[in-house]
Automatic annotation (TrEMBL):
It comes from Gordonia neofelifaecis NRRL B-59395. It comes from the Bacteria. Coiled coil: none annotated. This is NAD-dependent epimerase/dehydratase. It holds the Pfam family Epimerase.
Amino acid sequence: MSDDRSGDEPPRSVLVTGASTFLGGYLVARLAANPDIERVVAVDSRVPTKNLMRRMGRADFLRLDIRRPTIAKAIANFDVDTVVHAAPSIMDNVEHSAAIKELNVVGTMQVCAACQRSPSVKRLVLRSSAMVYGAGPSDPGFFSEGTPARKEPRRGYGRDLIDMEGYARGLSRRRQDIGVSILRFQSILGPRIRTRMSSYLSLPVVPTAFGRQARLQFLHEEDALAALEHSTLHPRPGTFNVAGDGVVTMSQSVYRAGHLKLPVPGSLISPLVGVLQNGRLPGMRSEHTPYLAYGRVLDTTRMRTDLGFEPRYSSLATLDDFIARGKTEPVISADTWRGLEHQAVAAATRLQ
């Protein structure tokens, strides 16, 4: 994807898919509040909550299924020049199923096909995820955008992402006048959004991989929204890792929340999470175990130099804000942990 399609002129008419989701809906609200954008079109097969609908303000809401050709009619009727595809379900709070795969893969195929046929569309922003890289013991210290996964996902959300990004790149090749931006988000945390990772870290007792120390990065919900907004207003074609600075270990993540680790064999993590959540959310599946055991860290150089985006929150600050303002309750208070840390340091000093 060459940089001659970036363009700095502001979008005139923007269509956002996934308007009933946190990222899609609040992005619509931000864009609708921008007086430089003439029209904002919000699309989803589900009606957003009343609170979210109020926040969307002047945006036009269309209840339609992106898996159907009607998405092309919407683009044509509103003379859309920028499409933000935020609808893909990416390991949020729903179990992966045939219906989810169809929404992700067939929906993205229809969106890209509609963009290709439309003479008005000049930009596509695709919400993707770092899950496309997979996870494993032989992974590099940092994944750059050009680094292939050590073990390509063959099923689940990871497989969906590979197919979705493939359709977006195919659009870029067939319509070289359309700038395509693919944002690979790291694990999103925040006080409002609900994801599998937020549910996992909210468990009072957190099953972790025995003998492993996963290296994690986080992306704050506000930075995820800001990155989508930035890419809409200041498009730069290409693929970009998006994550907060720094690395946080799994132990740090659990202990800072005031929770307890339960080291178990990797094969037991998924069923244990399901039991401990008591059916409130789908448990972690076996495909997620490598990530919980080894983690995944992204190189975000291109995010800063080429995309021109800088997150406000580091990975650690994201975790702390999630703990401070989210719904997780500590089992052991921060003061208790600090006391234990001081005791450990003092004991280590006496032994030297």
